[in-house]
Write a structure and sequence with these properties.
mainly alpha, 2 domains
Length: about 160
């Protein structure tokens, strides 16, 4: 569920913020993984890791401040102008995604211990299978309430690309 929610929020934030901000903010999951990992004893805290975390946080602050307070719309491409409130919501969703992924990574490391004990392809295959089996009712609810309507690809060419991949 944590993995699904982390991925949901990173996709949902793109309605409100730029891809650049989303990418930068979700890349902070390593910060939360380190902090939570140290708190529960699966990571060892070092000054080198602290400086890495601080440098990453500084980058997040700089990127987010450009989105929130930048008056120049040049170079925005097709991304429409959003209010500071909308961008802040998108950035918060991306950050929530990073936190959830950090919690997920720490819980998995705590439960598994040594990663050599499991087969990663089988593990992620099972994650996908459980998401499919347990979350399909949410698909129907989102579609029929109109919150997130399902649409088929716009052309047979796109459908072919999806099926071949």
């Amino acid at each position: 569920m944590l993995w699904f929610l982390a991925n949901y929020f990173v996709a949902a934030c793109l309605e409100h913020t730029t891809v650049a901000s989303s990418t930068i903010l979700t890349s902070t999951s390593s910060i939360f993984t380190l902090l939570l990992g140290c708190a529960v004893g699966v990571e060892i805290f070092t000054l080198r890791k602290l400086f890495g975390v601080l440098a990453s946080l500084l980058g997040v602050v700089l990127i987010s401040s450009v989105d929130l307070f930048g008056d120049n719309d040049d170079g925005r491409g097709l991304f429409p102008h959003k209010s500071a409130r909308q961008v802040a919501l998108g950035d918060a969703m991306a950050l929530l995604s990073a936190v959830l992924y950090g919690v997920y990574a720490v819980l998995m490391k705590k439960r598994i211990g040594d990663e050599r004990r499991i087969s990663m392809p089988v593990f992620f295959g099972l994650v996908g299978l459980f998401n499919l089996l347990l979350l399909w009712p949410g698909f129907l609810i989102l579609h029929y309430t109109g919150i997130e309507p399902f649409e088929l690809p716009p052309s047979s060419r796109v459908t072919t690309i999806i099926l071949v991949r």
